[in-house]
## 1
Amino acid sequence: MKAKTNLDKMKQFLASGKVYRRSDFTEMTSNVDRNLKALVDEGALKKLQNGLYLAPKKTPFGEAMPDEDELLSRFLNDDHFVVYGPSMFNSLGLGTTQLYDKRVVFNRKRHGEMKLGDRKYHFYRWREAPKSLSKEFLLVEMFNKLNELAEDQGDVVNKLKTKLGEFNSAKLYNALNRFGTKSAQKKLRPLLEENKNVFA
């Protein structure tokens, strides 16, 4: 029986739809880059970014992209991040209606615009990052990005005054303290202090 080559072992390791880092293969072969190139050339892997690969998953509609959380956690090598689109600000009920074709990753490691496979992301680095998305975090992040939005800032602030009671006070202060920029702090903190009576 023919002995398995290192390339064969790497192929056997792959699961369709999964994302891999170069480091996942370093113990399987001394020729990692050569073997990875061979796997890419034959279609067993797809290169998403330097050092990041996808084992393609075929569907009746074409090649499926991996789960977004898995893709980003493997790319960042960290699970402390949240991903959202600015269109999600519309769910806060503050009068915003614009739709944005943009994905933002609030994280601890990367900054700038990067493409992973066919998806484009805007990475925003902060000293820490939440592990889940809450409406309190979304509100703070909306104020972090307020100057970038198409809506009238005054209208948003006035609408928020009537909606503050729908937010959890402790979670909102915590999100502002941990994730708010100086600009967001300057806009939001006086507003919260002036309207403390609306919180239960």
## 2
Amino acid sequence: MEKCAWALAGPLEEQYHDLEWGVAVHDDRLLFEFLILEGAQAGLSWATILKKRAGYKNAFDDFDVETVAGYDAIKIDELLSNPDIVRNKLKVQAAVSNARAFLKVRQEFGTFNDYIWRFVDGRPVRNAWKSAAEIPAAMPASDLMSKDLKRRGFKFVGSTICYAYMQAVGMVNDHTIDCFRYGQV
């Protein structure tokens, strides 16, 4: 078996592909981490975000959603001067407002996991792509997720970002059928 073609871009991407991408995530902390990282990636390559992942983990208090939700203007300014993350004011502010919206979702649904997995009826969508060129940028479920997240006050959650999020947290299996990970996740 081969690997998905994009996973061969570099060692970080390969490791991420082999160990994480497409694995079902049900832990709220990790779901929040990927929400922050996918939003940060908008307009950039995933390789850029993977290189800064440790910086994000440190800068955003190990993605502790309660802590991030309490960030004030001083903390946001501190983050904007941190070279270990993408220093985009809108993305940093979105991370904080998304933390607050995330907590509201948890109040309503018990866990963010219970909320987010509803978009795929609680189990991964298993696609059967022969090549990476076939993989779409969005799907009806990511459209619905995006619309609902935006309604709840989330930012940087367009349908394409939501679809990438769904792939990352295993809501969608988009490993190509010839990839060794296809049957494992």
